[in-house]
Amino acid sequence: MLDKKVIESIADELVQAQETRTPVPLLTARYPDMVVEDSYAVQRLWRDRMEEKGRTLVGRKIGLTSKAMQDATGITEPDYGVIFDDMVFETGVHIEWERYTHPRIEVELAFVLGKDIKGPNATLFDVLESAKWVVPALEILDSRIEMEGRTIVDTISDNAAMGAMVIGGRPVRPDSVDLRWVSAMLYRNEQIEETGVAAGVLNHPASGVHWLANKIAPHGDYLGAGETILAGSFTRPMWVYQGDSVLADYGPLGTVTCQFD
Length: 261
Known about the structure:
alpha+beta; 29% strand; 261 residues; 8-stranded mixed beta sheet; 13 strands; single chain
C-alpha cells in the first residue's frame, strides 16, 4: 500500500490534469508497487476533491465488463468510477471536443434506480427489482493519465476513464424487454463502426450492477435510489475527433446522438 501522502499527491495531480487537459505520466511506471486498493483510495480522494468544488454524485459507471472491452484494453477484471451531475447530457447535445483528452465513445445501457441496492449479497434479481428504468446511453471516455501501457491500476485511479454520458432513446421497464438481446449499431459520420449485443456484458447487462453493489459494500457504500448506473460497454471504444457526429441505433429502443464541435 502506498503512503497516504503519495495518495494525496496523485489525487491532486489528477485534479490538475483535468483542469489543464494534460495527462500525467503512467502511475504504474512511477509507483511499481501500487495495487488496486491504492487506486480506489486515489479515486475516492479525487471524488472528495470534486465534491468540494461543488460537483454532485448522480451515479456510477462500471467498466471493462465485456470481452470486447477487456480484449481492447488488455485488462481482465471490471472496474468502477463515479458520475457527477455535470457529466450527464441528453441526446442531440453538441459537445466541445477539446473539453476532453483522447475522447472515445462506448455503447451501453444505463439503469436508473428506483430503490437502493445494498451488498454484500445483491443479486441480478435485486437489480431488476430496484431499477425503475433502463435507457440507452453513450459513454464518453476521458483520460487524465497517459494511455499507452495503462494497467487497471492507472484506469481505476483515473475514475475508470469516465468523461461524460449521453442519454437518449426510449426508456423501458427492466421486465418489458429481454435486456440480454438489446443490440446497437454505432455510427461515426454516418458510417457504421461497431455493433454489439448487451449480453456481451457479463452475460446480462444487470450483472455488473449487482457486482458493483457487492464490491462497494465493504466500504460502507451502496447504490442509492435515483442514481444512474452505466452498466458497461458492449462494443469496443470508438475514437472521435473534432467535427465528428455520433449516432447509436438501438432499434426498438431508439437512438442516441451527439456532435463534437
